[in-house]
Amino acid sequence: MTTLFAKIVRGEIPSDTVYQDEQVTAFRDINPAAPTHILIVPNRVIPTVNDLTTDDEQLVGHMVLVAKLLAEQEEIAEDGFRLIINCNKNGGQVVYHLHLHLLGGRPLGPMVVRPKA
């Protein structure tokens, strides 16, 4: 299975890559929702959170630690940042290749807009 993100990981599509190792690749979102908006993706395609297995525990932990490192490098760690993983349509997932959003650089407001009663 190939995805837009898999093509970025392989260097087939240009990106502003800020980190890459044997497990993950991180690059700036092309349509940022905050001054810092970086996507951290596994180098192998895992479509959604629902497709994770116990074999992926270390990988998911690594993704979070890479996000922490990048937040420090982007100088947003002290003021605060948000990590988001969307899952499937109602969760807001658009690209079906697991990815962790690192957002920061401004106050981000409420996590979810609550419906009016």
Task: Report on this structure.
It is a single chain. The protein is an alpha+beta fold and 117 residues long. It has a domain at 57-85. It contains 2 helices and 5 strands, in the order αβββαββ. Strands 1-2-3-5-4 form a 5-stranded antiparallel beta sheet, with helices on one face. β2 and β3 (36-42) form a beta hairpin. The longest helix has 17 residues, at 57-73. The radius of gyration is 14 Å and the shape is globular. The model has no long low-confidence stretch (mean pLDDT 96).
| Global geometry | globular
Cα Rg: 14 Å
Number of strands: 5
Largest sheet, in brief, is:
5 strands, antiparallel
Number of helices: 2
Order of helices and strands: HEEEHEE
Strand content: 15-25%
**End-to-end C-alpha gap:** 43 Å
Q: Low-confidence runs (pLDDT<50, min 5 residues)?
A: none
If strands are numbered along the chain, what order do they take across the biggest sheet?
1-2-3-5-4
Based on secondary structure, the structural category is alpha+beta
Mean pLDDT: 96
Helical coverage, percent range: 10-25%
Quick tags:
2 helices, alpha+beta, 117 residues
Question: Nutshell version of this structure?
Answer:
The protein is of the alpha+beta class.
Q: Can you lay out the helices and strands and say which pair or pack?
A:
Elements: H1 4-9, E1 17-20, E2 24-28, E3 36-42, H2 57-73, E4 81-84, E5 100-104
Antiparallel strand pairs: 1-2, 2-3, 3-5, 4-5
